[in-house]
Amino acid sequence: MTAKANYTTADDVFDSWRDDIRTGKAPVLYPIADAGELAQIEIGPGLVTLFGGAPGAGKTAFTMQAVTDALRLTRGLRAVVCNVEMPVTVLLDRQLARLAGLPAETIRRRTLDASHGSRLDAGLDALESIADRLAFVRPPFTLENIAAAADAFDAGLMLLDYAQRIQPPGQHGDRRASVNALMDHLRQFAGAGLAVLVVAAVGRTKDARGRSSYDADGLNLASFRESSELEFGADDAFILAPDKTDAGLVTLKHLKARHGEQRDVLLRFDKARQAFSPEDSSAETERKPDGKLLSALRGLWGSTAAAVDDDEGGDDGTF
């Protein structure tokens, strides 16, 4: 049986493509920040954006911030979130901490008082303004159930947290085959006009002494577990890489950019409030270099931290 030819000629699309060029019609994107480097991250219909990082790097915090701010900045956008580890109320707690500028622990323990009033009200108002456009998938965490929820909610943006724990349709021999099938389906979702954010686990690397660790310098595209299809299926791929000497400094390493230029983003992660903000890179360049003793101390601390972190635990201890 001869396969039916399936193709499109350049002439078939030329008129509409030329009109887009001449009229300056840009692709639709959902910004995740008002301005600055975070606003340059491309999330939008037809795009699959991959995020990874070691446990504690803040993958869930960053991607939930991205979804929340995309809803705040794009009127009418609707989003569905599938988080396989955290209940809805905890995810909301953490976004409230960020938007209100209050410690997440204070909100989690419900130890708020009158001094928190104005900031608490501002955070609650910000979340209430998007609450009817944000939905969370309930179990089972299968791709079929997630797709049904996204269709029913008319979502334009989907967040899956995280890829290795979500079951695609069909039977698959191992985890790699399952992730391959998942990404194949997510590409189809993007092709249907959905913006897709995917959080994925990364594997350990070997340090100079042969020890297993999550060395930020060694994290790359191959660090994603079951990496081949994750790499291929993503339009953009990022890894959150904490600085070895500054606990709050994180580089959002841009490892793949299918449609443009790779641009790393230097971020400050306020863990107490679960908030990411761009770091002033000029402050880094102006900082005096460490002396010999302080350099040695920082090096010793870095190697000690790597050894302590040898137990992987959950996907992301900080969320």
SSE sequence, one letter per element: HEHEHHHEHEHEEEHEEEEHH
Helical content stands at 25-40%
CATH topology: Rossmann fold
Structural class of the helix and strand makeup?
alpha/beta
State the CATH architecture: 3-Layer(aba) Sandwich
The number of domains: 1
**Main beta-sheet annotation:** 9 strands, mixed
Low-confidence stretches: 282-288, 301-318
Tell me the span between the first and last alpha carbons.
52 Å
- Counted by DSSP, the helix tally is 10
Superfamily at the CATH H level?
A: P-loop containing nucleotide triphosphate hydrolases
Mean of all residue-level pLDDT scores: 85
Radius of gyration, in angstroms, nearest whole number: 21 Å
Describe this protein's structure.
This protein is of the alpha/beta class and 319 residues long. It has one domain: Rossmann fold (3-Layer(aba) Sandwich), CATH 3.40.50.300. It has 10 helices and 11 strands. Strands 3-2-4-5-1-8-9-10-11 form a 9-stranded mixed sheet, sandwiched between helices. The protein has a two-stranded antiparallel sheet with strand order 6-7. The radius of gyration is 21 Å and the shape is globular.
